[in-house]
Automatic annotation (TrEMBL):
It comes from Halobaculum halobium. This is PGF-CTERM sorting domain-containing protein. The chain crosses the membrane at residues 179-196. InterPro entries: PGF_CTERM, Slg1/2_DUF7282. Residues 40-140 form the DUF7282 domain.
Length: 198
């Protein structure tokens, strides 16, 4: 093979290798994006509380947010912007605080690029079926502490009122007792004096 025929063959071979590499890179990039989106995940455990919900683990391949929905489907808590990767024990303050035990749903959301949560612009990460990636958990709200505190306060107030009433009654009785005794003694003395004059 002479130099003249070798050069075009090398150029053709280089073009072919470049095209294959480019096609492979595009395919790899597409596969990576699909794989990254497929690895988004969230895990929420059953828990007790009213003012916050803790998400055990959230994986956000491209960064974003974790949000929590209440039983009515309203967003009640949102995390700060989270970088790409897996985050553990993400605590979200909920507002308003949960007033009763209920099921909540934790969901992972993308970010539209401004790192400020916007419910309409920051779409949920989705699975292969196009469904938002989320997990539900049961949050128990303990009522006994509040009920006990109220009952104790009421009982204490009632006892205080009863003690005050008893004390007032005792004072009235004590006050009227000696006064009645003196009046009776005066009447007796006046009566004795009148009898003595006759």
């Amino acid at each position: 093979m002479n130099a003249r025929s070798t050069l075009p063959a090398l150029v053709l071979l280089s073009v072919l290798v470049g095209a294959v590499a480019l096609a492979g890179g595009l395919a790899a990039g597409t596969a990576t994006a699909q794989t990254a989106n497929a690895t988004a995940d969230v895990s929420v455990d059953d828990q007790t509380g009213a003012a916050s919900v803790t998400v055990a683990e959230a994986t956000l391949p491209d960064g974003g947010y974790v949000v929590v929905y209440n039983v009515s489907g309203g967003i009640i808590g949102t995390s700060e912007y989270l970088d790409a990767g897996t985050h553990e024990d993400v605590t979200l303050e909920v507002s308003p605080a949960l007033s009763r035990s209920q099921v909540v749903v934790g969901e992972v959301r993308t970010d539209d690029g401004n790192e400020a949560f916007n419910a309409s612009a920051d779409a949920p990460y989705t699975n292969e079926n196009g469904q938002p990636i989320g997990e539900s958990a049961y949050v128990t709200v303990e009522q006994t502490e509040t009920a006990t505190a109220t009952a104790t306060a009421t009982a204490t107030a009632t006892e205080s009122d009863a003690t005050a009433t008893t004390a007032a009654t005792d004072e009235s009785t004590e006050t009227s007792g000696p006064g009645f005794g003196i009046a009776a003694a005066l009447v007796a003395l006046v009566g004795a004096a009148l009898l003595a004059r006759r």
